[in-house]
Write a structure and sequence with these properties.
Layout (H helix, E strand, L loop, with lengths): L14 E2 L8 E6 L4 H12 L3 E7 L8 H4 L3 E4 L3 H13 L3 E4 L6 H12 L5 E4 L5 H14 L4 E8 L9 H16 L19 E3 L2 E7 L5 E9 L2 E9 L6 H11 L4 E4 L10
Parallel strand pairs: 2-3, 2-4, 4-5, 5-6, 6-12, 7-9
Antiparallel strand pairs: 1-3, 7-10, 8-9, 10-11
Helix pairs in contact: 1-7, 3-4, 5-6
């Protein structure tokens, strides 16, 4: 879910809204002219109790968030700047909801350390905001300990800049954790020669394969195999609007979840 535009600290905001009643949560969108950012801005406008106070893009200054009175920023930018954007927000007491993928453990650890200095601020970093995708990730982790083999195939549009996708990497991490907790090792694989990487990336002992194809939006399959059977858990997003219910949920919930939350599932009260 990464777009090719990113905020920098240079000029004025693309647009700001007038002051709103205190009961409304004041929200700013970063990467507002990208595909996901523009959808997020529209979703905030439509949502009851939220007020869009700023839309920033790569030529706009993050400093504009302060006079706009933003309480929450939604970040749909690019991996190279998203951590900087989150740091700015946290240091100014602004909560952050992040859909930009490409975060690694070092970046997450730095964000946790920063939040320890700002204990009232919440940051949600979600690899995917689609409710269906979040459920598919959780179902994959639940099923993984019952099957000898598991692999992941993720399919996206060719403008996506990172591979594997954040959703696939997060799914692999959850699957790997579940399999280790069950005392299981990596999936069986007799491959001895693969000089061109045909077997894909390996994330937490799980093979992940990335497809980039014109006409796709965001799709993923978890393939689980046992003797004589196969289970496929697939999720398809055909339109970016599928992510917006999760974005709005994240914006509403992040203010009451201080610290770092990695993954929207912690806001869904799944009880699984």
């Amino acid at each position: 879910m990464t777009e090719r535009t990113a905020p920098e600290t240079t000029t004025a905001p693309a647009s700001t809204a007038p002051a709103t009643p205190a009961a409304e949560l004041r929200v700013a969108v970063l990467g507002a002219r990208g595909r996901m950012g523009s959808e997020a801005a529209q979703a905030v406008r439509r949502a009851e109790g939220l007020q869009l106070v700023a839309e920033l893009d790569h030529e706009d200054s993050l400093e504009a968030l302060v006079p706009a009175g933003a309480q929450v920023v939604v970040d749909f930018t690019v991996p190279s700047v998203t951590e900087h954007n989150v740091r700015f927000a946290v240091e100014h007491g602004i909560h952050a909801v992040v859909g930009t993928t490409g975060w690694d453990e070092e970046g997450l650890d730095r964000t946790r350390a920063l939040l320890a200095q700002h204990p009232d601020v919440g940051v949600l970093i979600a690899p995917n905001f689609s409710i269906g995708a979040v459920l598919a990730m959780r179902f994959s982790a639940q099923a993984a300990r019952f099957f000898e083999s598991v692999e992941i195939v993720e399919l996206h549009h060719p403008e996506k800049v990172d591979a594997p996708s954040g959703t696939a990497a997060r799914t692999a991490a959850l699957v790997g954790e579940a399999r280790r907790a069950a005392g299981m090792g990596p999936s069986p694989d007799a491959t001895k020669q693969d000089p061109d990487g045909a077997r894909g990336a390996v994330v937490d002992d799980v093979h992940v394969h990335s497809v980039r194809l014109r006409g796709l939006v965001a799709h993923q399959e978890t393939l689980l195999g046992g003797t004589g059977e196969q289970l496929t858990i697939r999720h398809d997003s055909f339109d970016r609007i599928s992510f917006m219910s999760g974005v709005v949920l994240g914006v509403r919930e992040v203010v009451s979840h201080p610290g770092l939350t990695h993954g929207l599932e912690d806001y869904l009260q799944l009880g699984l």
